Give the backbone structure.
Amino acid sequence: MRTSWNMTSLILGIFVIAFALTNTGCTPKISDEQLLKLRELKEQAARLESDIKKKEAEKSALEKEVSARQAEAKQSQQNKEFIQQKLQTWPNSWPDFVPPSTEGVIQMTPAPEVKKKKGKK
C-alpha cells in the first residue's frame, strides 16, 4: 500500500510540474511594444530589400559598361597592331593592290578662258 501511495504521489507530482512548466511565462498576445518593434523591423527589411535591388541594378549597369569599355580597348589594340604591322612593311603594305590603269581613259583638258574685250560695242 505504501508503494502505491508513493507511485500516485510521484505521478501526480510529475503532472503538476508539467502543468506548471507549460502554463507559466507564456502569453498568447504580444505587447504593444513588441508589435511596434515588429512593424519597424518589417519596414526596415522592406527598405533594405529595395536598396539591395537598386544596388544590384547599378552593379549590372556598371558591369555592362565595363565590358563595353573592355571591348573598345580590345578593338583599339587590334587596330593598333594592324597599323604597326602595315607600317613595318610600309612601301608594300598592300602588295595585292593594283592601281587603276589609265588606258582607255580620255583626259579632258579644260576649255581656254575667253577674254573679254574692253571698249565700245
Summary: Helices lie at 2-23, 32-88. DSSP finds two helices and no strands in the chain.
